[in-house]
Specification:
Largest sheet: none
InterPro entries: Acyl_transf_3_dom, Acyltransferase_3
Keywords: Acyltransferase, Membrane, Transferase, Transmembrane, Transmembrane helix
Shape: globular
GO molecular function: acyltransferase activity
Helix content: 55-70%
Strand content: under 5%
Radius of gyration: 21 Å
Oligomer: single chain
Protein name: Acyltransferase
Number of strands: 0
């Protein structure tokens, strides 16, 4: 892994425009969010292994999903910061194709590898008279996984590698990105940017207030309002840093309190039985605050360990659910009874991290480099700003959502 410099704090009263360099804390936060997603999917298994902890795990299971909404905001912010000028007008098919190829290189090879292992495991298990949970069928469900359309809505369940729905939904955002950027660039005043952010946050909140905030609606029946709304919210926040507003700098000074406020908002919503997604307008501001590179939270998320977590976040995101499902066949309350349940839970969690490291080193990193070598840079495209610089903002390294 290449070394990543830690940016110094901004001392002026003005906002630091997004896209002016590597924002280490926006890399580090990816690792934290990935850990929350792992905890969400581990919750029902950990609860069964350690019944006394069930209330805590239930809280994580039902309310930790907000981490994915923040992922979408983060993606909208950092992708817009690197490509806002390139896509101010239609850049041409070559540049757009290179943009999509760069995005695919970040996650598609490892996605296909994990999917291939799952298909093989299902076929082998069926041959010996068993069935792996959530295997999906070998027809339409598998095709949607391969074509990254499983998160476009209309699905009957989360099949195969369930978390891929969010990457699929984000892929849909990339496909319409050249249309979104000119619209966001029309927000030329701080007031317009703030209004654009609130309207973008309202897209999923209003939509799901009618169709329901249930797991089916927000993950596989109709997830695109969630993805598009949060992605646009992130793009609007990015635009706010480019219109001469002091709002980002002000928010950057209160990053810590903003994190506490976000956790408090989620807690209050949970206590009163309201959907945690309603906290999106507050939670999304954490991305803007971190982009200002101020304070203790920014410093913590810029540490080496946080950056390593961010770098391995895609691999962890893609391998943890298949591993949890597979390992639970061996690691369960029968094999780890009573107090041994905590050992079993730790083994499941540790296995996810080990597999993520292996998948990153063996598949993700080499495949990403190989895919980049297959595309020749367009003659008039910026030498580094189009793909490599943006990927450093997103992932913290020069070769790689």
């Amino acid at each position: 892994m290449t070394s990543t410099p830690t940016p110094s704090s901004t001392t002026s009263g003005a906002a630091k425009p997004a896209g002016s360099g590597l924002i280490a804390s926006l890399v580090g936060i990816r690792g934290i969010l990935a850990l929350v997603v792992v905890a969400v999917h581990l919750a029902p298994f950990a609860s069964a292994m350690m019944p006394v902890t069930t209330p805590a795990w239930n809280a994580v299971w039902h309310h930790g999903y907000v981490a994915l909404d923040m992922f979408f905001v983060l993606s909208g912010f950092v992708i817009s910061s690197g490509y806002r000028k390139v896509f101010a007008r239609w850049p041409g098919r070559a540049v757009f194709g290179k943009f999509l190829w760069a995005r695919l290189s970040r996650f598609y090879p490892i996605h296909l590898a994990v999917l291939a292992v799952m298909v093989a495991a299902v076929l082998v298990s069926r041959a010996v008279g068993h069935e792996i949970p959530h295997g999906g069928n070998l027809g339409w469900d598998l095709i949607r996984q391969i074509t990254l359309t499983s998160g476009w809505g209309g699905a009957h369940a989360l099949t195969w590698n369930g978390p891929v729905w969010s990457l699929s939904a984000e892929w849909a955002c990339y496909l319409v990105f050249p249309i979104l950027v000119p619209l966001v660039l029309r927000l030329r005043t701080p007031r317009a940017c703030v209004l654009g952010y609130l309207v973008a946050c309202a897209i999923p909140l209003v939509a799901y207030s009618f169709i329901g905030f249930d797991d089916a609606s927000i993950t596989y029946e109709m997830p695109l309002p969630r993805a598009f709304g949060a992605f646009l919210a992130g793009a609007s926040l990015c635009q706010l840093t480019h219109v001469g507003s002091r709002i980002p700098a002000w928010i950057g000074r209160v990053t810590g309190p903003l994190v506490v406020l976000s956790l408090a908002a989620i807690t209050v919503l949970a206590v009163f039985g309201h959907p945690s997604m309603l906290s999106l307008p507050v939670v999304g501001l954490i991305v803007l605050a971190l982009a200002q590179q101020r304070g203790a939270v920014n410093t913590f998320l810029s540490t080496r360990w946080a950056l390593v977590g961010g770098e391995y976040s895609v691999a962890l995101f893609l391998v943890h659910v298949p591993w949890i499902l597979a390992s639970s066949l061996v690691i369960n309350p029968r094999t780890f009874p009573g107090a041994w349940g905590i050992v079993g839970t730790l083994l499941i969690a540790l296995g996810s991290f080990v597999l993520a490291w292996v998948a990153y080193q063996v598949i993700e990193k080499p495949a990403q480099r190989w895919m980049r070598t297959l595309v020749k840079r367009p003659a008039k495209a910026p030498a580094r700003s189009l793909d490599e610089r943006t990927d450093r903002v997103v992932t913290g390294r020069s070769t790689g959502t």
